Amino acid sequence: MQVQIPTAPPSVPSRSESGAAVNLGLRIGARLWWGLPVLLILLWVAGAFAVEVFPGLASTPLSTVLLLPLARFARDVAAAITVGALVIGALLGVNTYRQVFRWAFTWALLWLISLAALLALTISDIFAASVAAALQPGIWWSFLVDVSVGRVFLFQFIAVAIVAVLCTLIRSRAARWVTAVIAVSGAAAPAVLGHGGVHAAHVSAAVSLAVHIAAISIWVGGLAVLVALLVIEPSLSSFMLPRFSLLALWCVIFVAESGLLNSALHLGDPSQFVGSFYGVLVLGKVVLLGVLVRFGWLQRNQVLARISDGEQSRALLARYAAVEMAVMGAAIAISVVLSRIGLTPARTATGEFLPPATVLLAIAVPLLLVWVFAPPAPRSRLGRRSWALLTGFSPFSAVLLLVVVAEVAGVGIFGTLLGPELGVVVGTLLLLAAGYIWATSVVATGSVAGIVLVMVGWPPVMWLINVLATNPVGWKTTLLSVLVAEALLAMLWVRRPKRVDSLDVRAISVAG
Q1: Which residues are CB-contacts of 150 (< 8 A; sequence separation ≥ 6)?
Q2: Alpha-carbon 169 to chain mean position
Q3: By C-alpha distance, which of 410, 275, 262, 424 is closest to 346?
Q4: Contact at 8 Å (CB) between 216 and 29?
Q5: Is residue 134 exposed (0-12), middle (13-18) or buried (19+ Cβ within 10 Å)?
Q6: Tens digits of per-residue pLDDT, 381-423?
């Protein structure tokens, strides 16, 4: 069904919005804050809450260590919603409708507050001083003017202040887009604070990270503001949904491309993606991006297809957006953790897999692939029969998965035979293949046995990986791996389809 995009939006009231609309503006993207538990857990596992003590030198206060990532998370959320409100307002193109710009003004003020808190905590972190000392005028002003990191903060303060003022003065379409561009530049400014901005040779890393942050801000904030806008003005659905869908598609492309480039610049070897906690977090962001792309595709095909239904299409959008916001909050949390722990060398040069990497490669990614793509249909009769034997009996596929994980990530047979880098590539492909066979089998048969076997067998396999590792990881990393795997398996158990007899599945697959 083709959606006809109207040439002009419906008439929108120009009078002041009610108190309910104002309160709704403060609740925009509420599910983004679900990323806070993810942030705290990952920081705890990474050991980022520990205060480094050097004899004879001052140490960063514990309060600064605890509050700094929280301030970064709050700044990122406020920046994204501000940018999203301005972009939605620019797309809306209605001079008489100013609610989104009121929201943008409110969140710009929150952005300024979180930025001020982050500045004080950053000074405290860099100079190992108390927050009270960092608030002294001579210190923070000298930091803003004389230090490169401080000048980035100064640019952000100026950009956000200009945005807040312009939100109250916007009248023309050109002014709306200028304000949106200024907000995007302010959101992307922290890119030069990372590793790309430290060395002149890494300019490409800073540029790719800036594009990444800008695209995420538009996508995340735009979706949050759009859902809130349609709650109070449902008549805008047919006008806004097709436009934002196209904008979100471009944002996904830019996020994927810039993220791929940035990861390639920071993590050059395959072993770093599976052998360092930084690389595992990058893999986690890739999985979350895949989940978001899938939800975006469902929105584009189901919400837009039912756009004429009015209430039904908005209900679908709200349901999908609620899950997307939670996933986006987790992605923002991972980004904050990445910036906090920084780049570290690969854990080992022997091609070993960290336990969290096996969870992503053997369980999370295969489940995502089965959810997104239909299982392949082999062309030959022998291929169909072999595929049926592999996927028709979920207990066999579960045992196969556990054995492959133990051999690849525990024993490390391919790293020993092929070397660390080639061994990681081959081992990754085998983990994905075994996981995909298991996921396909469980989804096709609805069998509980295939899930329970992995739930029971996963903790011992994680223990085996840690025992056989050259550099064993801490118990917190192993515990996180087990809990994430068990949570995914429990979700699969709850949402499994109605059980189908495995012999019938095999007969259908062979006959297909």
Answers
A1: 119, 143, 144
A2: 34
A3: 275
A4: no
A5: buried
A6: 665 666 666 677 788 889 999 999 999 888 888 877 887 788 8
